[in-house]
# Entry
Amino acid sequence: MYPLQFRRYHSSEANWRPANQFAGAALPHPVARWLLDTGSLTAHLRRKSGGHFRVRVLSQQWGLPRLSERRLLDMGDREWGLIREVLLCCHGEPWVFARSVMPASSLTGHLRRLRRLDSRPLGHLLFTDRSMRRVPYEICRTAPGRLSEGVEVDEPLWGRRSCFLLRERPIMVSEIFLPAFQAWD
# Structure
């Protein structure tokens, strides 16, 4: 069994900082290797699990993103976005908690299809779009028990987030690496 509990509570914001502010012992080498990897996490998880990968959707709804998310996405104080929270599971076990924020203004035209992802991984769609550019990562170390609304853990965990630009329209993806996560070689 894994130490994840699913319940509703008011979550606090993680302390996200630019990746370049983590130096030396603050970001141990084995952690830095996968935490700062610029490839597709979805592709890595599919390879690592031998194809035993799936997305478990926890929620997908329109709402007001957290303050730091609105700032990262350059959104107005009252601008809504599509907020999606999922677990990326390998061998039936949650390895990564992912939260995506897609501003309403980003989900028009060609990107309108992102409104209906269902259990398809967002990462695959991002990395197959030729217009995609990624803004440098921000990193956090979560506090025990406080991951996000609906998910609670027993230990501090590493996380990363970045803003993807698709046809110059921003989408934020944050990923928290859960205790069952197995780094790739």
Summary: The two ends are 25 Å apart (CA to CA).
